[in-house]
Amino acid sequence: MVEKFKTFIKRSFSNGPKAKIVILATAFVVAVAATTVATMRKTVKLSIDGEEETFITYKGTVKDVLQDKGLEISDHDKVQPSLESKINEDDQIEVKKAVPINVKFAKKDVKIISAEETVEEALIVGNDQLKEQGVEYVEGVDEVEPKLDTPVKENMNVDVTKVEVKKVTENKKIPYDTITKKDSSLEKGKKKVESDGKHGEQEVTYQVVYKDGEEAEKKEVSSRVIATPVNAVVVQGTKNPVQYIPNRGGESIAYKKHLVVESTAYTGHNNTATGIKPVYNPGGVSTIAVDPRVIPLGSLVYVEGYGYARAADTGGAIKGNIIDVFFNSESKCTSWGRKYGVDVYIVSYPGEW
Fold first, then answer.
1. In the predicted model, is pLDDT for residue 26 greater than 60?
2. What's the domain range around 83?
C-alpha cells in the first residue's frame, strides 16, 4: 500500500523542488502510520474457565479486548491481569467466571456468586454477600461440609454449621464427708451425731461449644473453692448391749453371753482347780466345773435349774460346751443326772464382780 502511494505521488508531483518536498513529507507520514499500526498489532492468548484461545488484537487494555470479544464481566468474575492493564505482545488473559453456590445455614438457605477455586475461598470472599442476607461465616470456627478444599462447582450445595465457644461459670456443691468415731460408752448398734456436716461450694468454669445453638461439648477449664466443706462427726457405740435372762418371774438378770451346754453333776470335798472348796448354795453362789476355753475361770454364771455359780473348777471330761455342777450329796447328783440343752448365762467375767 505504501509503495502504491509513493508511485502515485511521483506521478502527481514529478516536476520541481516543491514536488520533491511534498513527496518526502508524505512518505514520512505514511511510514509513521505504518509503524503505529504495526505497534498496535498484538498476539494475545485468552483463557476462559480453562478453555484457551489465541488471537490478534489492536486493543490497548484487557477491558477493551474482552469487550471486543463480546464478553460480559460481572463484579464477581475474576480477571487476570486487571481490566485496566495494558496489553502487550504474547500477553495471557485469564477469566474465571463466577458461578452460583447454595449455602445452607441452620435457619436460612442463601446463595452466593463466586469465582474462587475452593469452598473455603468462596465463603471467605463471599462473606459480604452472606452478611447482606443475614448470615455470616466465621473462618476457622464454623464447620463446613463438604471439606474446605473441595473445588467449587456451579450450583453446588454447601452446609455451614455455626460454632460458638463460650466460657460458662457454675457454682457446684462440694459434698462433706462423714467421720465415724468409736465410743465404748455407747452400746453396739447405736449411733449419735456429734457434729453436723456442711456442704462446701466451688466455682467451676467450663468451655462450652455450641453447634447451631445446641450444646455439643462441655469441658472444665478451671475451678476455685468458695467455701470448704465441714465434715460431719458420728459416734458409733462399741459396748456390748445389756441382755437379760428371760422368764425370771419379773427379776431382771443381765448377762454378757448365752451358751447351751450339756451338764453333769459331781460331789466331793477336794479343793477345786482354783484352790477353793466347792460349795452348793441354792440361795447364793455355788461351784461348777467348766472348760476354761469356753467359760473363763472366775466367771459368774447363771445355770438354768441350778442358780448362780462360780466357774471355779475343771475336769478331765469337761471339754467344750460341757459343765459339771457341784452338789453336796450323791443323791442330788443322781437326781440331776445328765442334762442336755441347758441354758448357761455368763453374768460377769473375772474381775467384774
1. no
2. 42-96
